[in-house]
Design a protein that fits this description.
2 domains; elongated
Length: about 325
């Protein structure tokens, strides 16, 4: 299998026939073995019935996964990735706002040597206040914090080589951070402008509350990418900073007592200094405990601390 298309579906009964027709039209122009994995995320309309109908008509290409209840877009994407077989994986939405006609262009970009091609909805057809502006702020924040600069993290339409998707699991709203995870293992990333259409049928599932979830997930992603293998750098750095502040406060108290005869015991700075010292010491201890957990995680499961792009004249897996 050369190409897997993964599409999460939630209450899209009116869009599905049009989407599948557009996918067939596009895929017939490509000389590739392909599969389409549609993940029904607990739809409450007739989406699953439509998916079953298409799967019966075309068992060669159509695969359907049905959740028992709604688990969210990230879980649906994770399931699609788990059960896909293609060397290249393309994600897109089921609401027809992503255009399947852009897939050949993205595959051609991958063939230039990239590992991940991300879509950029430059002319986005969504509400400017509730969707576009919060998305613009989120894209800027994610780019600044992670160092992976993309215009449109929220665009589901992306093409990946399978090897850059291995080694991590998706939770919460973290599907939008896949480029960050891929970059952390050395993926070469390109961004291309893709078409974006206004929603014709159904209602959007996203609101302003999703921006809060994205910000919270960003903290997790930043920690996992920057400090997962060496947590002592974070906890030890914070602890050292607090202990240095504590030492500066104590030095100030002693200088003031020695030269200006101001008592130390009655000053609130003494309690603040002691608190900072204790918190700093505890933070360093937490970092050491986290280091033990990281080593247990890697060594017990024999997980490598590196990723390999290619090997020459080597076949044996050193972990065997």
């Amino acid at each position: 299998m050369n190409l897997s298309l993964v599409i999460p579906v939630y209450n899209e009964q009116d869009n599905l026939p049009l989407l599948l027709d557009a996918i067939y039209k596009t895929m017939h122009t490509l000389d590739r073995a392909w599969e389409l994995i549609l993940v029904d995320d607990g739809s409450r309309d007739n989406s699953l019935s439509i998916l079953k109908e298409y799967a019966e008509k075309d068992p060669e290409h159509i695969r359907v996964i049905s959740f028992r209840r709604n688990f969210g877009q990230t879980a649906a994407i994770a399931a699609g990735l788990d059960y896909s077989q293609g060397e290249i994986i393309v994600l897109l939405d089921a609401d027809l706002q992503n255009d399947p006609a852009d897939i050949p262009m993205m595959l051609a970009k991958l063939d230039e040597g990239y590992d991940l091609v991300s879509g950029w909805r430059k002319q986005r057809k969504d509400n400017a206040v509730t969707r576009n502006f919060p998305s613009m702020l989120a894209n800027w924040l994610i780019s600044r914090v992670t160092g992976v600069h993309l215009h449109d993290y929220g665009c589901t339409l992306k093409a990946y080589r399978r090897d850059v998707l291995e080694g991590f699991r998706l939770y919460g709203e973290m599907h939008r951070f896949i480029p960050v995870y891929a970059h952390s293992v050395g993926a070469h990333i390109a961004e291309v402008v893709v078409s974006h259409h206004p929603r014709t049928f159904g209602k959007t599932k996203y609101g302003l509350e999703r921006s809060v979830k994205v910000v919270l997930d960003l903290f997790t992603v930043k920690f996992l990418i920057s400090y997962a293998s060496k947590p002592i750098y974070l906890f030890g750095g914070a602890g050292s900073f607090l202990m240095i502040v504590s030492a500066i406060i104590m030095l100030f108290l002693f200088v003031r007592r020695w030269f200006f005869f101001v008592g130390i015991a009655n000053s609130p700075l003494l309690q603040i200094s002691a608190m900072f010292f204790i918190l700093g010491f505890q933070s360093i201890l937490m970092g050491l405990i986290a280091e033990l957990l990281v080593r247990t995680y890697h060594e017990s499961q024999r997980k490598p601390t590196y990723t390999i792009r290619t090997m020459l004249n080597l076949k044996r897996d050193p972990r065997e």
